[in-house]
Amino acid sequence: MFTEWKNAKIIISCRPEYFDEGSRERFWPKENGKKGFQELTLTPFLRAEIDQYIKKYADYYSKKNDSQLSWNADRYIQEINTIPQIEELVCNPVLLKITLNILPELRKRGTSQINRIVLYEEFIKKWFERAQERLQKIQLKPKEKEEFNRLINEDKESFTKHCLQFGKNFAFEMFVNNNKVVIDYDPINEEIKSNWARFLGDEDVKLRLIRFSMPLFRRGNQYWFFHKSLRDYLISCALLDSLKDSPQATLFNMQSIIPEPAIQQFLAEQVQQMPEYEQPLFDFIEYSKRNPNIQIASANAITILSRASIQLPLNLNNIRIPGADLSNRVFIYSQFEKADLNKVNFQNAKLQSANFEDASLRDANLQNTSLQDVNLTGADLQGANLQGANLQNANLEGASLQDANLTDANLSDANLQGTKLRGSNLNYIKF
């Protein structure tokens, strides 16, 4: 096909995933080959460019004879500005256009609040609907046609359901496999039972059709979602789907979400909007008191509930939540007796009058934490960071603070009887 374009100087494409290294040679000029070939990639839109695009979009579609555009440019800009963290999505021209396409429809349906979750959900659904329409229009091979008919004939939304499930499974596999964003898959060198073959192999016709319909980029042997936020959103959906599973089988217990604030935020927003998710998360925390094997799930659960600003019970004795992120939260009068709080992030938290008797807080981050009147009797705080913490009138009797950082901490009127301080940093402490 390319040889027919005798005088072509520039070729513009929005589908770079279809060009592997071999296909690029087809674009080389005959005169000087590779030396005469140059490839350029457009950078994401800036805020001013987003506004400019919206104005041109509204102007163009308002002039079409069959235009059903009900919003002008100012209305689009106003609506987009009300959606938190939307700019990282609409800086992509393709995603911006789809956003402009679905926003009026959402409002028309009476959606009272347009937020990120609603937008992502509608965007994914719209993407798969358009993929289905595209497959219906192109000429498929007989086996592909047969399999496609099976996919669409189960029920009205069966094709979308199959695609969505594939997307969730693929995204979560990326997450548990070293939190990958880009997948390298070489069918020649991969083992037959490779985890990626069940997503990226070509032998299964159904698999090929679904993968073709996914919002994925492909370049050579590399695959990735064309925006990381789509991957993170699908991971959050897969995690919430697994809440119906047993504590041991749930995906929540397979991988910590603590290093991924974006996934945490998607989960927190969905829990805020769908309260039915709250109880299973509370159950993980409760189960951890009796079962040490679900501490990943319990740490993930309490992190999400805290990020969603959902009130936690005062009685948290014996819970196991190592590594959880509870920074900037309020736990006044909370009970953490004999709890496993190793490596928990309590930075800037308010913990006045809380009970940490015999709790394990090894390597915990308590920087700038309010710990006035807390009970830390017998607590293990080895290696903890208490820099700038306020421990006024705290009971540290018999506590271990070996190798802890107490720089700038306030220990006035604190009970330090029997406290182990060997190796700790005591610079600029206030007694």
From TrEMBL:
Which SUPFAM superfamilies does this entry report, sorted A to Z?
Pentapeptide repeat-like (SSF141571)
Q: Where are the transmembrane segments?
A: none
Which InterPro entries does this UniProt record tie to the protein?
5peptide_repeat (IPR001646), Pentapeptide-BTB/POZ_domain (IPR051082)
Highest taxon, organism lineage: Eukaryota
Q: Name one Pfam family in it.
A: Pentapeptide
What is the name of this protein? Answer: Pentapeptide repeat-containing protein
